[in-house]
Amino acid sequence: MRKATRTQWIKCSIAILLYLIFLIWVKSWWGLIVVPFIFDVYITKKIPWSFWKKSKNPTVRSVMSWVDAIVFALVAVYFVNIYIFQNYQIPSSSLEKSLLVGDFLYVSKMSYGPRVPNTPLSMPLAQHTLPILNTKSYIEWPQWKYKRVPGFGKVKLNDIVVFNFPAGDTVALNFPDADFYTLAYNIGKQIYPNPINMDSLTREQQKTVYDLYYNAGRKEIMSNPQRYGKVVTRPVDRRENYVKRCVGLPGDTLQIINGQVMIDGKAIENPENLQFNYFVQTTGPYITEEMFRELGISKADQGLTPEGAGYEEGLVELGMDGRNAQGRLNPVYHLPLTKKMYDTLSANKKLISKIVIEPEDYAGDMYPLNLYTHWNRSNYGPIWIPAKGATITLTPDNLPIYERCITAYEGNKLEQKEDGIYINGVKTDQYTFQLDYYWMMGDNRHNSADSRYWGFVPEDHVVGKPIVVWLSLDKDRGWFDGKIRWNRIFYLVGRLSSNEKGI
């Protein structure tokens, strides 16, 4: 063995020092087993790491050099994605106009502290399924417990946050975008279609009805894999990534009154570009594509209500009763509008005759799905957001709200028996939360699947904070017709759109 040079010792010392700093940061001393290998790479060279370089076959050397480069790149990307940042594309309009469909973001893992992966053995750049092969992108063993290493801060009110979909633990693969639990309840209601007057029932009787719906729907899904697909369960870090705005922090009491979010009885600041859905009837002409572009309404959101008796009756009930000389209803659009868009259309009296906000019965069932309330999208709660270390008294009125936190997120066994509530076999009416929770909502309030539908976001589901838009593509335009939104390149994602520029 040749004696190591001074330069080799210096490089080895720097590499080991940096690696030890990393281990201190992540608080994982198991990583010390790698130190002898680092020492061997630089000093002892007992392991033939680059054996292929000595091959006499040029093909072997060429192929292995590519393999070596690819493996190194994948390992580097893996660690960067876990601990530094990852790329994320906005797939839906739930945060418009703060973030647009087609925005490509850098999501900072350092903002809230990187989360050590639950499933460390996985393919880089794949969330849960390998493309083409259509198989799992990860190995289920080992599965590590939740751990977050120190970062620059914590989630703050009105932060835009990327997180793993809380209700995505169970997925029917033929309906991958559907919340499994909502799917099960809806199927159960189809199986038992007779209307039930829930107001006349006690809480216990109401629970019996909801259990009937869910169990029937779940049985139907599980017994019909050809229709619903295989039902799979996913670890926390292998669930779909969602992006929403945090409007409620641990320990807050949240309520929505006429669309305004209230925290502890006080209205929070709204994003400047908050949107709601409206029905818009014209005086007769159709809204031009040029006007839609000026308003910033994408083709996907340009909903022209079909003609026909089935639609006409409902539109007339909403007051959309303007008719032309032939007695036909004037065109009616279903559009998401900001206040600025609303004011622009309202002022155009020659084109627009009426604008009516979308009724609440257009929305689906609110969280929790197994508690009878009169809550809707615009009038919701009050609801207390769990905080780590806080203890609550469990009652029939709040147990459905918090049972998912207790069981699915914090891993306890909860049973309701005739004589009371049992948690891990112990009778109790008290529970102390082990995690902090958040309430997430979209700025496009009527087109957002958010906490109003599936509840709290646990801290272990938080992925990171969007920092900058590095690319933005308008799917409605061609490459020579403004497809690239140049004004959004390197656009900084602020906490409130009122503080943001370039929208």
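the 2nd protein, sequnce then structure:
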Amino acid sequence: MMKRLINFLVKKPISVSILILLQLGLIYMLIYLLSVRLTEFLFIVQVLNMMIVIYILNKNDNPSYKMTWIIFILGIPLVGGITYLMFGGRKVPRDIRTGIKELNNGQAILIQEKAVMDSIHEKEYLRQARYLYDNTGFPIYKNTKVTYLSSGEAKFEALVNALKSAEKFILLEYFIIKEGYVWSTIKEILVSKVKEGVDVKLIYDDAGSKSLPYEFLEDCRALGIKAFAFNPLRPILAIYMNNRDHRKIAVVDGRIGFIGGMNLADEYINRISPFGHWKDVAVQFEGEAVYSLSLMFLQFYDHVSKEISDYSWYYGNPKKYENVGYVQNFSDSPTDEEPVSQFTHLNLINSASSYIYIMTPYLVIGYEIMIALVNAAKSGVDVRIMVPHIPDKKYVFSVTRSNYEYLTQNGVRIYEYLPGFLHAKVMVADDRVAIVGTTNLDFRSYFLHFECGSLIIDDPSIKDIVDDCKDTLSKCIEITYEESKNVNFMVKLWRAILNMFSTLL
């Protein structure tokens, strides 16, 4: 029993959390002792809190996020202000902020081909493509074959086949890696490719992959895999837990690239089923757009490895593809003030004229997205949102359900995926345009995480995306306005409280 307890306590996330809590405890104990002994101290705290509130009100920040912190500060004045100063500023760690910005200069080699941009005749889509290029630096391409993968199993099979074909390099970047069948299968391939002389690079998020053993990095490197953890957890109060690498990118030889929701863990291919059937999707690219994914990865790799990559070496010399549409891969970063993913979602919702289907694991949306969805529905657009029926995080699911009543009352149709957990991040509209990537419809993805996605326009793969949405809808139950309204009062109250703090979840 004692051995199991010790093994539990020495796990990195646990030990880090304990050390942080001890530091917090000491600070708040000091605050309490001062408040007992010095009346003047409480006055100073109140003045400090008001100054913080004024500062928050004048920040160019999300209104919901600002209101949450103001309520917390005024509701718990003794500790609210100091808590905000430590954790509430949404500041990206300086080494990440400056490092990623400097690396963005490398995107200068990604030049938008004018003829391709000018060939987009639909005004709304042209505007969206220009927005992404101007604000992320990633061009839109024509010469790219898109294959939509409608399950984690399909993505895993395609990824395994692509990795086995590698001759030059492999780039892997994932939010979560867990030990199990998926990782052991991929690891075996990576090791064999290293022996063949293939350059294998791996990035994983330290918080997302918290279950990995301490020796994981050393073991990978000993096998010849150039592995790095992004934004490692540190047991100090200045810890920046929020800025996580939520991207999922895989590139082989610059020929084949993948993005989507699937991480390298067994639940994503239903080898284990903690939340029923796990529904996920991904997109495979072959052609010019793959180079964007390579550079996305290399920018992060150069940051974590402190190396300077020869970006031109990773160009795949793509062959020509006929009868294809437009593809624009993009990255979203909290290092700037531009909420690229949110604006891209808003643009797609606002441009839809017939229908828009959305798959998302979380529906923790702010006022902007909420109003856009309602406005689309009231304008005659068929708006359908698919979410899980079995959640992975019950408190987040409560916030998701708290939004049902207003949305359904105003014409938005909500569906829950009955077989289990829906992890796909998909938007598709009007049989012509889609976004597939890693971004959830929540504050964390929009403002705190590093994310990536693909804008796909007038490509044959759009039909496959639409068909998958319709197939998923057939496995869902629709939540009506009456059902969302007739909820127990205490449940509604609990959801309302959680929703008030949704930007902190």
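DSSP finds 20 helices and 19 strands in the chain. Residues 12-37 form the longest helix (26 residues).
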